Amino acid sequence: MEGINSTIPCEYGISYRKEGTLEWVDAPSSEKGGGTFSCRISGLISNTGYSYRAYLRVNGQVCYGTIRSFRTEKEAAAYGVTTEGISNLTSSSVLLAGIVQGIEESTPCEYGIAYKDRNSRNWTEIPANGYNSNGYFICNVVGLSPNTEYDYRAYLHVDGKDFWGTTRYFITEGTDLDPSVLTVLQDFYKSANGSGWYNHTNWLEDSELLWWYGFSPSSEKEELYDLRLDNNNLSGNVMLRNSNFIASMSLENNPIQSLTLERCEGLSELTLPGQGETLSINSCGRKSGVSNSSPEFLTIDTRENGNIGHIDISRSTYSKVNIGGYLSDRNISVDKLDYTGADQNFRGYLEGGLNTAIGQLNLSHVYDEFTVSYNEIETLNISEVYSSRNNNMIGRWDIGYTHRNGHIKNVNVDQGDKLPFSISFYQHVDIANIRNMNQPTSGVSAGHIFFRFEEGVNEINIDNLQLQSTMFSIWTPTPIIINIANSSFLLSSYSDTADNVFNFINCDVSTDVGGGITKRLHNLTFKGTKSQLQEHLKMNGY
């Protein structure tokens, strides 16, 4: 209140009126002297709207402030909620009912059913979507476990208060489905937020899998199933573990963040959304009882052009993993692909469609006979390749065989002082770095170690290649400078086609100087072609 003081005779306070009436009621302030004041108004009706304004009477005149409004709270005794019965009980779902009292359509509130496993302390609330004229409502609860006891109760949250009905219970029905299968699919359903799917007909019900939405008999494998859940609002970090009954799975056009597959036997075809998600495959592959001579193939695909953020494959028994489908011309990219710890004793294959591109490909602890072929690879890292043949024979890798027009920017091979192996590159390589291959002096079949670059290479750097007296050669279609440091080997007499220039730094090199005579030069630092090296050895008496 402004413009008055304690010496001016006046009256001020708050006038108010109930919604729908015209009469204003004055509530004078007991304070004097103007300034900020407050008035307590009693006798109001609960859950009712009122208008109010400040007033001042002075010198026979009345001044009013801006009209504002408020609504009184409803008396707590006016609210109520009752837990009612159940219906449509199955092994995985039930309809639970309740009655709510004292609320109106305009009342801000939430009501529904809360439930929990009898052995759990955590309640899950399922909000209701509406009630009838008697306040009766129903909630559909899905994703339950079979033959399990649950508690439930109705609830109402209104005006900052919580109201609960009496706690009751129910027991879900049993199921004829194999309990292990049901457990696998319950975990999958929960991880993929199954309650939010557009269609989850018969999921987790006591019925054959063929009645569950998305399941059909496998078109490729007897007694297995195909699972197709495209465009069905699967979301989050989806997990499928311990499955031995799904042959193919399609999750096209679902907003998932990641898919984790663990110990999934028999899975051979997977279609992803291709929206940057992460894929993890651990200990998957051959179905039990299948001979080692018939290893599993896995195709990872996206229905249209797509991107997969990260693929992590570890300890798989797949002999071949294809990304993008065979002869597919879709543009599929993978930002990063890790392939580690493969549990195999056969030649492995990592391949892609015609336009599959990999950002970073990391291969570690993989069998020493392997094929890698993608159209584009930004960086290829190979480390700790092992021999499955009692460490007495040296293997060979083929890279880019089915994509000869493709391209690899950077190749990094680091064996960590383990056995050497040969590599044939069938697509152009910008830079190849090869280091730390070490052949023991005994117990290993020497053979012939070679690095072939069929479509050319811009730069080769080799460090710590310890082959002792094993023959070694590098083949390139056009001459380049090859940098070799801190290494020991027998430079092969085989033709290198291109007359490459070798830049040796601190190497022990043996070479054929003619007449079947081999000479070795220790701590060699030399730059020149192989023929120039042979002349150098002769001139120095080697």
Keywords:
542 residues; mainly beta; Immunoglobulin-like; 4 domains; 25-stranded mixed beta sheet; 2 helices; 38 strands; elongated
Secondary structure blueprint with pairings:
Layout: E1 10-18, E2 25-28, E3 49-58, E4 61-64, E5 68-71, E6 80-87, E7 94-101, E8 109-117, E9 124-127, E10 136-141, E11 149-158, E12 161-164, E13 168-171, H1 179-191, E14 215-217, E15 225-228, E16 236-241, E17 246-250, E18 256-262, E19 269-272, E20 278-282, E21 296-302, E22 306-314, E23 318-323, E24 331-340, E25 348-352, E26 355-364, E27 370-373, E28 376-383, E29 396-399, E30 407-418, E31 422-425, E32 428-438, E33 448-453, E34 457-475, E35 481-485, E36 488-491, E37 501-514, E38 517-528, H2 530-539
Parallel strand pairs: 15-17, 16-18, 17-19, 18-20, 19-21, 20-22, 21-23, 22-24, 23-25, 24-26, 25-27, 26-28, 27-29, 28-30, 29-31, 30-32, 31-33, 32-34, 33-34, 34-35, 34-36, 35-37, 36-37
Antiparallel strand pairs: 1-2, 1-3, 3-4, 3-5, 6-7, 7-10, 8-9, 8-11, 11-12, 11-13, 14-15, 37-38
Structure, explained:
Residues 289-294 have low confidence and may be disordered. The chain has 2 helices and 38 strands. It has 4 domains: 10-71; 76-171, Immunoglobulins (Immunoglobulin-like); 178-367; 408-542, no CATH class. The longest helix is centred in the middle third of the chain and has 13 residues, at 179-191. The chain has helices spanning 179-191, 530-539, and strands at 10-18, 25-28, 49-58, 61-64, 68-71, 80-87, 94-101, 109-117, 124-127, 136-141, 149-158, 161-164, 168-171, 215-217, 225-228, 236-241, 246-250, 256-262, 269-272, 278-282, 296-302, 306-314, 318-323, 331-340, 348-352, 355-364, 370-373, 376-383, 396-399, 407-418, 422-425, 428-438, 448-453, 457-475, 481-485, 488-491, 501-514, 517-528. The chain has a 25-stranded mixed sheet that branches. By secondary structure, it is mainly beta.
